[in-house]
Amino acid sequence: MLQVRDLSASYGAVKALDGVSFDAADGQITAVLGANGAGKTTLLRTLSGLVRPTSGTAQLGSTDLLRTPVEEMTRTGLAHVPEGRGVITELTVEENLRLGALGAPTGGERRFDLDRVTELFPVLGQRRNQVADTLSGGERQMLVIGRALLAEPRILLLDEPSLGLAPRVVAQIFALLRDLVSSTGLSVLLVEQNARSALGIADVGIVLNLGRLVVQQAADTLVDDEQLRHAYLGF
Ligand code: ATP
To answer: Which of 76, 119, 169, 208 is most buried, taking the most CB atoms under 10 A from its CB?
Structure first.
């Protein structure tokens, strides 16, 4: 369970997060929604130690995330997949995946080895020896998610995985994500502009506006709330 309390962060005079509190349960997808500039990316970057908060707490199980050095973050069970699909283009799919495993905690049972990840994303198995440069946008997105899984996360922070992908490919990736969470008990924070698709697979949605949390609700309740959808979600 991730517990965030009263989290604030600023860039100089710009208050990007303002007293944000919410819980994200294990085995659930929490969609993080809101307009451009609402603070979604800043929330992920603060949780993963890339932005220093001005106040608040963030607890992942017994780990105090905000006191964890960024280089130790992966070993606490948090994996962050930023926007932009940062694969190493000269390396093969398998080599990229193996890099993810370098961040995994040593010892303990492995839930996500190379075989499991290629079972979850069969296309990565088929393209195992292909250099990442030649992958499609959707395949690259699967590769960065697969690579993050090899670090054995308890929670996966995904920033705009749908960016620049065709609707059919987005639907495919989101369906894979849903299966992944249901079959492994992983927790996912899913930042999305594409609110309708995100709520289609999420258990819970949180809506940010100008750095503040507007609401945290079951995803289907959010979809049914026409006023809120029109005001904050653009559909
Ligand atoms: P988008 O959907 O457009 O990516 P977002 O909800 O992810 O938006 P953030 O990127 O977190 O929003 O930005 C929140 C606010 O902080 C915005 O006003 C943005 O201009 C500002 N901001 C973000 N990064 C920086 C930075 N490095 N320096 C200064 N201001 C920043």
So the answer is: 208
How many other C-beta atoms lie within 10 A of the C-beta of residue 11? 9
**Cα(60)–Cα(3) distance, integer angstroms:** 7
The answer, yes or no, to whether any atom of ligand 1 lies below 6 A from the CB of 38, is yes
Task: Render pLDDT for 91-136 as a digit per residue (tens, 0 to 9).
Answer: 999 999 999 988 788 777 788 999 999 999 999 999 999 999 999 9
Residue closest by Cα to atom 17 of ligand 1:
37
By DSSP bridging, strand 2-11 and strand 55-60 are antiparallel
Q: What pLDDT sits at residue 78?
A: 95
pTM, rounded to two decimals:
0.95
Query: Would you say the C-alpha torsion 164, 167, 169, 170 has a positive or negative sign?
Result: positive
Q: Decide whether any atom of ligand 1 lies within 6 Å of the 20 Cβ.
A: no
Name which of 69, 77, 87 is nearest 111 in CA terms.
Answer: 77
Residue 228 Cα to ligand 1 midpoint, Å, equals 22
